Amino acid sequence: MRGLPTAVPWGQVVRFTVVGGVNTVTFYGCYLPLHRLLPYFAAYTAAFVLSLVGSFFLNTYFTYRTRPTWKKFLLFPLTQVTNYAVQSAGLVALVSWLGMSSTVAPLVAALLAIPATFVVSRRILRPPARRRGAADGTAVPADAAGQADPMDRVDRAGQDGASGRAGRADQSGATPPVRSSEPA
Fold first, then answer.
1. Sign of the CA dihedral 114, 116, 120, 122?
2. What's the rounded Cα separation, in Å, for the pair 24 and 70?
3. CB contact at 8 A, 59 and 19
4. Within its chain, how far is the Cα of 126 from the centroid?
5. CB-CB contact of 99 with 109 (8 Å)
6. Residue 105: is it exposed, middle or buried by C-beta count within 10 angstroms (0-12/13-18/19+)?
7. What pLDDT score was predicted for residue 57?
8. Can you tell me the distance from the alpha carbon of 175 to that of 177, in angstroms, rounded to the nearest whole number?
9. Distance (Å, rounded) from C-alpha 120 to C-alpha 35?
10. What is the pLDDT of residue 140?
11. What does the mean pLDDT of the chain come to?
12. How far apart are alpha carbons 119 and 1 in whole angstroms?
């Protein structure tokens, strides 16, 4: 059973909110010139995709300070699905149930969606706490399914397992950790 988080990562929440603002400006900055060249929906779609890619890299490097992977990149649009669902539900609730102005309600709904969208994006871009599993008892990074992330694995030659770049040096001289399912 997983325990509840002990503290809210406020620095990440603030950076996430800043990235959301930058993403909104990026979207609109792409949409306006594209709208001169393309029909409005094509311009909207192109601007959305461009801002989504930018948002992925900003959130990966700036908000969560982690490495991008193809898996994270392919899962990242789920954050937008979550954001849309929460904002839509909030919009309906604010306008229909609470009688808020439909001009102001989308902004309030967007603010109310930040926590849910943050949780989903953090889950996708930042692996959960490290699990025990290596033969020598060192922690091995785990993804959402409990599997070690290949981007965080260091092979026996001291190279980053995914890219071949020089990896972390083992100060003790011991064999670097491997997933528990692999032979030691």
1. positive
2. 24
3. yes
4. 7
5. no
6. buried
7. 96
8. 6
9. 31
10. 44
11. 75
12. 19
Q: Phi first, then psi: what are they for 119, rounded to 5°?
A: -60, -45
Torsion 37-38-44-48 (CA) sign: negative
Residue 9: both structure tokens together: 């990562």
Helix-strand-coil percent breakdown of the chain, rounded to 5? 55, 5, 40
pLDDT band at 36 (very low <50, low <70, confident <90, very high): very high
Q: 145 or 99: which carries more pLDDT confidence? A: 99
Inter-residue contact 95 to 102 (CB < 8 Å): yes
Q: Can you read off the two tokens belonging to residue 104?
A: 């102001």
Residue 15: band (very low, low, confident or very high) from pLDDT cuts 50, 70, 90: very high
CB-based contacts of 122, cutoff 8 Å, min separation 6: 9, 12, 16, 64
| Tokens found for residue 150 | 């290949």
Euclidean distance between CA atoms 10 and 143, whole angstroms: 22
Residue, of 62 and 161, whose pLDDT is higher: 62
- Residue 145 phi, psi dihedral angles, 5° rounding: -90, 5
**Is residue 18 predicted with pLDDT exceeding 60?**
yes
pLDDT band, very low/low/confident/very high, at 107 (cuts 50, 70, 90): confident
Looking at the predicted structure, is the pLDDT value of residue 26 above 60? yes
Q: Which two tokens stand for residue 141?
A: 């990074």
